[in-house]
Amino acid sequence: MPKIKLPSKTPFIDMTPMVDLFSLLLVFFILTATFRQQEPAPVDTPYSISEKPTPDFNNMTIVFSNDNRIFFNVDNGPDTLLKYRNKILAEMGKAYNIEFTEQELRAFEKLGNSIGVPIENMKAFLNTSDTKEREELQTGIPIDSLNNQLANWVLYTRQINPNVVASIKGDSKTEFPVVRKVLDILQDKNVNRFNLVTNLKSVKVEEEQTQQ
Amino acid sequence: MADVGGSEAPKKGGKKTIKRKVVRIDMTPMVDLMCLLITFFMLTTAFSKPKIMEIVLPEKIKKDKDKVEPPKIAKSRTLNVILGPENKVLYYTGMVEDPKNPPPLQVTDFSATGIRMVLLEKNRALFRKIDQFRNDVISGKINIKQDSVESAIRKLKSDDDTGPIVLIKAYKKANYGNFVDILDEMSIIGIARYTFVDISWIEEQMVEKTLGITPEPAAKK
Asked: What is the pTM for the complete model shown?
């Protein structure tokens, strides 16, 4: 019987189409990527039917997490050359007699996520690069009537960037008195128009319901 | 890694043929790397940007500065909605005229058959108008472009003058989610006039009485 000789070649799979596909996908994801920002505290936003997207700039966000800590965030404005964040922090420093160095101001500018550090600890916060230490300093911005730093943040932000719009991003489990206080602070500073950050949920009022 | 095909020993006979050399590149590492990168980008991309809901609160009336009377509203059109603890909603119509004998509070919740039905009931006239409008468009009585139907309906909603005026109040045990939920209900039902006001102590007591909560003693300092 003749022996069937199997060629001892290794099977070779042509991967070119796969590579093609993958590179297409990769290019797509790179181009569409807008990175999710890491929040200092987990915030579970409530749901609404609103479909308006968040604005890309001129946005100041007040975040409250479920343990009643308050965070604040503001962007650099439509152009990074404007350096709004630097100016705001410098003004804040002036108000509390803290002088921030150029380096600290730059560190603050680069910081993308919201901050919940009382202004007294801001220097320490900006000078450390240790994430754990930073986390410990995020004790929330004080909103007592005696030491109302949030009001000053709002005030100076609006002085430096008059086009800024306030957004409120809160955890749905936050107790109401905290919300009321934040709203009060904003209203004291004559901010009467807010954006509430929510997740999308679709609800429709059914026809039968309306016709009863 | 990269190998050149057709590297077998030359055939006997020594006929010289120019061999076609196929260059094969092993792409597996490249595919591996791409897989990793794609996974990374997929996981870090925030596809759905968070949405926003606009809310405008009435300007605060500073008492001592300018003597502006708060606007007066018709009692019959008023619906007071109080956000209670544990995702409950309480409501009553009109106003508290006699603190000793307050109107009874109705208790409901945020489900589709809860507060939404109450608000719908109040806003029925508007929905009739919208239905009428839709029928007119379909039957051709009103000549309007298909695209502008939605905006016309939105205009109907905001111009509505017969719907309820909803005063939203929050009991201290309510949470932020309830607040957003009730504002959301307003936009679902299309109530044009609503505002957010402070709860009065009478109403607080009414809530406590209705839900059987013993009020916490005021914190001593």
From this structure: 0.71
